[in-house]
């Protein structure tokens, strides 16, 4: 009964929060909401400007839920600052989008963790377990979403590091064969299907839209978290601006990237070697000492009897 009462109290408290935050005194309508009755085809134009966006559509979700979710997301964003850092990490993970969408995912993960903690606390008998596990589950859910974003950034960075030497060699071959930098980028991006190939395709699309190839390449360097790729883009841009032989620059960049990869492998091997010492020192060595000393201890105990 205590568990059921605690869950009912939690649901009632959440309901009160939703009513208070969604009521007219606390509701702050946006400009889009005020102009929507006077502008025709508002939702169609919004969908055209923001395809696949996270805006809630009328008819699919009630307005109250949208207002409550937006208020909760804004509250989490105020409690957890650092929107610029989150935006850079989202771009590095290949998930361009607003920070508010990521905060909303954090809220959903925290809600799932809260529910899991409440269920676990109820299964353990309620009381202190329920009080402790519920906030711990919510905190673990919110931090788990941030941890998963870090995992995505690391995986994509490793994929970019693995693809960069091959891409640089292909670009050098294409430029040596007489193609222009734009044509070489187009050929290599069409032949590659990895993360870096998609980034080059995005660079070409931005350059065709009027941004310019140099600007698009600089934006690629800004949204990546890989230092060799940043140096590669800087060398590419400098070669385009100053008219230096691009093929030689690309070959030198590819050689530098391969050397950096070799150094990264050596560093990873050194860290793995240190990590391998942990089970040897704390597991294998004590067991070996125990097997060596146990017969002598048994013999001494028999002689003393």
TrEMBL record:
Highest taxon listed in the record's lineage: Bacteria
Keyword annotations: Cell membrane, Membrane, Transmembrane, Transmembrane helix
Localization terms from the record: Cell membrane
InterPro entries referenced in this protein's UniProt entry, alphabetically: T2SS_GspF_dom
Its membrane topology: Multi-pass membrane protein
Entry's transmembrane regions: 280-303
One Pfam family hit: T2SSF
Domain Type II secretion system protein GspF: 168-292
Main location: membrane
Name recorded for this polypeptide: Type II secretion system F family protein
UniProt organism field: Cryptosporangium japonicum
């Amino acid at each position: 009964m205590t568990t059921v009462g605690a869950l009912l109290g939690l649901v009632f408290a959440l309901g009160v929060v939703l009513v208070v935050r969604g009521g007219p005194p606390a509701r702050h309508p946006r400009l889009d909401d005020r102009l929507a009755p006077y502008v025709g085809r508002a939702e169609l134009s919004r969908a055209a400007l923001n395809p696949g966006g996270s805006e809630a559509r009328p008819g699919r979700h009630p307005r109250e839920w949208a207002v409550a979710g937006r208020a909760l997301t804004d509250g989490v964003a105020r409690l957890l600052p650092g929107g610029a850092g989150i935006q850079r990490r989202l771009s590095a993970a290949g998930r361009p989008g607003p920070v508010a969408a990521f905060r909303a995912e954090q809220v959903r993960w925290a809600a799932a963790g809260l529910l899991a903690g409440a269920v676990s606390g109820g299964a353990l008998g309620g009381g202190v377990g329920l009080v402790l596990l519920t906030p711990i589950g919510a905190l673990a859910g919110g931090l788990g979403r941030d941890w998963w974003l870090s995992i995505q950034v690391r995986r994509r960075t490793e994929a970019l590091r693995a693809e960069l030497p091959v891409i640089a060699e292909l670009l050098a071959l294409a430029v040596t064969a007489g193609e222009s930098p734009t044509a070489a980028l187009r050929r290599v991006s069409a032949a590659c299907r990895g993360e870096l190939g998609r980034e080059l395709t995005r660079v070409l699309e931005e350059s065709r839209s009027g941004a310019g190839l140099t600007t698009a390449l600089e934006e690629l360097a800004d949204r990546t978290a890989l230092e060799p790729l940043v140096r590669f883009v800087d060398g590419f841009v400098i070669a385009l601006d100053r008219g230096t032989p691009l093929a030689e620059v690309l070959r030198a960049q590819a050689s530098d990237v391969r050397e950096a990869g070799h150094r990264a492998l050596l560093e990873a091997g050194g860290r793995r070697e240190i990590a391998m010492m942990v089970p040897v020192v704390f597991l294998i060595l004590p067991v070996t000492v125990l097997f060596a000393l146990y017969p002598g201890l048994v013999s001494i105990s028999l002689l003393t009897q």
